[in-house]
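Slide 14.
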Amino acid sequence: MTFEQSLARLEQIAAALDRDDLPLEEALKLFEEGIGRLREANAALADADGKVQTLVAQADGVLEAKR
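Slide 15: predicted structure.
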């Protein structure tokens, strides 16, 4: 699942959990799924951040890996 798909699913889960008529069992299942999607999204963001942090543009426009 892509980052964008995980984010969209998290929004759906949050909206469902806001409902007053949601049975407890279903709410717990959605909450558990939401935690999983959140972890996936956080991992994708951390991976992207790591890639951005390792690339630095030089004055001549060439990208160089930085550690």
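Speaker note: Helices lie at 3-17, 24-54.
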